[in-house]
Design a protein that fits this description.
This protein has helices at about 5-10, 15-30, 50-60, 70-85, 95-105, 110-130, 140-205, 215-240, 255-260, 280-300, 340-350, and strands at about 265-270, 305-310, 315-325, 355-360, 365-370. By secondary structure, the protein is of the alpha+beta class.
Length: about 375
């Protein structure tokens, strides 16, 4: 099994930077590579001595801690580089300077300009020292070397800005995902709670007029109890699974229609074709369309004949729910409009079509075409 912490260290440089420092240190001690490293300042080459080992160590060892202390790292590496070149060792470890500069500019969170100015000042002092020692390096070489170091600094700044932009993008995507999830859960809660509670309120109001008919009153109260239990079951599924497709398959439409009929709404249900298995998100969305339409029928056209037509095709599910407008509106129930808007969004995500509105006869209609086969 891959150790994820080890992979993270590799990607972050926690392992690579010490390895680079060790490689430069070992390469600088190889006799064949003596005086074969960076040559800057024009000082004549000289054999290694104890100070040469110190200079090499100053350039290589700090790379192991450059991510934690980038300013200290580049300062010590710069000091080791100055000793290396002023003494004429020209060790292989001189390569560590642009690496340390790159790492420092990529790790610094603030005061990058101050550090850049300090490095430039130190470089000017080093050039002045070379000139005082009569090294004889041409101005073009000084400028070229400075541009190389500045280029390394620029790469580090670009690297850091790229990382920050990527982190901001991931954060934005995470926030959008959370917002979409909250919206989805809100739609599910609206669908479950509104439908069942609407049915319970309508049934309870009807019970007022059945006090002289005990057998019908008992049946109505039983229906209210069953509806409440069904609402609790749906809510439990939603909270346990947080999956809007759980327990809302299109083949549960008949139970949904029967529940609405028990609430006093005459519903004519027609279903053509056979639900595809698996139907992905199309079946649950079709269920929600019918559920929301029947809830609106109970709210705004109670007692009005309602038609539900569902057609299962090979590539899509079509749903049409309509009322003739002859019923009465339940005054105690209000609507936020969130249900229909949420359904339009869900159908649109699947690439379908959704429409709802008033019909010419005074009723209303809800139509949806939902592409089947989506597994989202």
């Amino acid at each position: 099994m891959v150790n994820l912490r080890w992979v993270s260290k590799l990607r972050g440089g926690a392992v690579w930077y010490p390895a680079i420092g060790l490689l430069l240190f070992a390469g600088s001690l190889v006799p064949a590579l003596h005086s074969q490293g960076t040559q800057f300042g024009g000082m004549p080459a000289r054999p290694y001595d104890l100070l040469a080992i110190v200079a090499v160590a100053c350039q290589c060892v700090p790379l192991a801690v450059c991510r934690r202390w980038p300013v200290l790292c580049v300062a010590v590496v710069g000091l080791g580089f100055a000793i290396d070149q002023l003494r004429g060792y020209h060790s292989f470890a001189g390569t560590a300077l642009p690496i340390a500069v790159l790492i420092a500019s990529s790790q610094l969170r603030r005061r990058r300009r101050v550090v850049a100015l300090a490095l430039t000042t130190a470089y000017v002092l080093l050039v002045v020292t070379f000139e005082l020692l009569g090294a004889g390096e041409s101005p073009a070489e000084y400028v070229t070397f400075y541009l190389v170091i500045a280029f390394a600094w620029g790469i580090g700044v670009w690297w850091r800005s790229t990382r920050l932009a990527d982190a901001e993008r991931r954060l934005r995507v995470a926030e959008e995902t959370r917002a979409a999830e909250r919206s989805r859960i809100a739609r599910e809660l609206h669908d479950v709670v509104t439908h069942h509670v609407t049915a319970m309120v309508v049934q309870t109001e009807a019970a007022r007029y059945l006090t002289t008919k005990p057998e019908r009153l008992d049946q109505t109260l039983t229906d209210v109890t069953d509806t409440g239990r069904r609402a609790l079951t749906d809510l439990r599924h939603l909270l346990d699974v947080l999956n809007p497709d759980h327990g809302t398959r299109a083949d549960g439409l008949l139970d949904l229609v029967e529940q609405t009929r028990r609430a006093g709404q005459p519903v004519e249900f027609t279903e053509q074709g056979t639900p595809a298995e698996p139907s992905g998100s199309a079946g649950p969305v079709a269920y929600r369309v019918v559920q929301e339409a029947l809830t609106n029928a109970l709210k705004h056209a109670h007692g009005s004949p309602t038609s539900v037509q569902v057609r299962h095709g090979d590539r899509e599910i079509t749903v049409e729910v309509s009322t003739d407008g002859a019923g009465t509106e339940t005054a105690s129930l209000g609507g936020s409009g969130r249900g229909l808007a949420g359904l339009g969004d869900r159908v649109g995500v699947l690439g379908g079509d959704f429409s709802a509105g008033r019909s010419t006869g005074g009723g209303f209609y809800v139509r949806a075409r939902i592409p089947a086969g989506s597994s989202s």
